[in-house]
Amino acid sequence: SRSCGSRTQSHLLRVGSAAMADDDEPTFESAESGASLTYPQQAGEIRKGSFLMIKGHPCKCVEVSTSKTGKHGHAKAHIVAVDIFTGKKMEDLCPTSHNLEVPFVKKTEFQVLSADGDTGEVSLLQEDGSTKDDLNLPIFVQVGEPTDEDKKVTEEILTEMDKGDKSVFVIVQAACGMEKIIATKLV
After folding, report:
1. Helix (H) or strand (E) holding 62
2. What is the Cα–Cα distance from 121 to 138, expressed in whole angstroms?
3. 3-class DSSP state of 175
4. How far apart are the first and last CA of the chain?
5. Are the CB atoms for 81 and 92 separated by under 8 Å?
6. How far apart are alpha carbons 127 and 172 in whole angstroms?
7. How deeply is 101 buried, as exposed, middle or buried, from its count of CB atoms within 10 A (0-12, 13-18, 19+)?
8. Shortest CA distance to 53 belongs to which of 35, 44, 40, 63?
9. For residues 65 and 12, which has the higher predicted lDDT (pLDDT)?
10. Which DSSP helix (H) or strand (E) runs through 114?
């Protein structure tokens, strides 16, 4: 049995060295400034309304409960959260002393210049006077089905743009390199 173990190890080493030789150049995942998309926070400090990462998705906590365990065990936090982009319910169970990743979530307000209900394209006015044209109406989702809130926000944007009597502003939520229109505001 001893020789079998060493053979497996040497096989693993060979495979690993071959893979490393393939890419001499360092690979960079994204062309960002190096600022992190998340920061660590203890699971015991997560509260209802807090943002956190579950299975790589930025989520907002809707329910958190802690359980005391046996003599030498850790207290555990049971976290129920909703994905901030898809509305999908996610759950996580982890010791309260462990760190969780918390996404940096930014909300920005933009004025809507145009919105196309057929293609989903939205043109927004940025503070510097340039336009932001890389977002779609909330019902045009990449993953899953649009939520009722997505439908409501889209409807508000389109009806108010058609009326044309008020300036329509939207609130764009950004986290982990993703962005989505989450609310409207009329001025």
Report:
1. strand 57-67
2. 10
3. strand
4. 76
5. yes
6. 14
7. middle
8. 40
9. 65
10. strand 106-115
What whole-number percentage of the chain has pLDDT above 90?
70
User: Residue length, the chain?
Assistant: 187
Cβ 92 vs Cβ 102: under 8 Å: no
Phi, psi (degrees; rounded to nearest 5) at 160: -70, -35
What would the two tokens of residue 22 be? 């393939």
- What pLDDT sits at residue 24? 53
The reported pTM is 0.74
- Residues 17-26: tens digit of each pLDDT: 444 444 455 5
**Nearest one of 147, 163, 27 to 82, comparing CA atoms:** 147
Dig out the tokens for 174 from the structure.
């950004």
The whole-angstrom separation of Cα 18 and Cα 75 is 44
74-103 tens-digit pLDDT: 899 999 999 999 999 999 999 999 999 999
Tokens standing for residue 72: 């030498």
